[in-house]
Amino acid sequence: VAASFGQADPKLRLKWVGPDMSAISSITARLMETWAHAQAVYDVLGVERVDSDRIGNIVRLGVNTYGWTFKNRGEDVPGPMPRLRLTAPSSAIWDYGEGEDLIEGSASEFCQVVTQCRNIADTGLSVSGPVATNWMAVAQCFAGPAQDPPPKGARHRA
Questions:
Q1: Which residues of 39-76 are buried (b: 16+ CB within 10 A; e: fewer)?
Q2: DSSP one-letter code for 133
Q3: Are 44 and 157 in contact (CB under 8 A)?
Q4: For residue 75, what are the contacts with CB-CB under 8 A and spacing of at least 6?
Q5: Domain 2-138 belongs to what topology?
Q6: Given this model, what pLDDT does residue 85 score?
Q7: Using an 8 Å Cβ cutoff, are 86 and 93 in contact?
Q8: CB neighbours (10 Å) of residue 110?
Q9: Spatial distance between the Cα atoms of 32 and 44, rounded to a whole number of angstroms
Q10: Which of 29, 31, 97, 155 could make an S-S bridge to 83, C-beta 3.0–4.6 Å?
Q11: Distance CA 35, CA 57 (A)
Q12: Block means of pLDDT (10 residues each) for the chain, length 158 residues?
């Protein structure tokens, strides 16, 4: 798979469960799926995951699927994407968006929420404003029908 992706035109459209996506988006989605499923393994083993700044790819996927989260649910996008102020594993600050609402905290925890590995209530993310609150309650950066995140307390490190 890596060799095939390495030779692919990044803009090549590929079929997938949801809408067709570019090869570069498909690569990012496969990375996200591997990261998210691995989180479940870390949780069951009771091991705290140590991320690197490479999770920036998953953060960007979460950012890029903001509007899709709502459209996938048959809802109107509630407004501009909230501002994100995330702390990367390296302690760098990653800023996205310009909305009035704000989501602030760990980039790793943001990734856990948008991949539905965690309920927003099980993270230390600070969420202010109705658009940010609504998004974090239903965020979904993966293809397929709309899914609700796990209930509070359902997904955590053993």
A1: beeebeeeeeeebeeebbbbbebbbebbeebbebeeee
A2: H
A3: no
A4: none
A5: Nonspecific Lipid-transfer Protein; Chain A (3.30.1050)
A6: 98
A7: yes
A8: 28
A9: 19
A10: 97
A11: 11
A12: 85 81 84 92 93 95 95 96 98 94 98 96 97 97 92 86
DSSP character at residue 149: P
Angle between helices 107-114 and 56-64 (to 10 degrees): 50
β-sheet bridge partners, residue 103: 84, 127
**What is the sign of the dihedral through the CA atoms of 49, 55, 61 and 63?**
positive
Question: Which residues are within 8 A (CB) of 154 and not within 5 positions of it... i.e. 6 or more apart?
Answer: 119
Beta carbons of 84 and 110 less than 8 angstroms apart: yes
Per-residue pLDDT, 19: 73
Q: State how far the Cα of 149 lies from the Cα of 81, in Å rounded to an integer.
A: 19
Residues 6+ apart with CB under 8 A from 107: 51, 55, 56, 59, 86, 87, 88, 89, 94
Beta strand 93-96 pairing with 83-87: antiparallel
| The two three-digit tokens of residue 122, written as one number | 């099980």
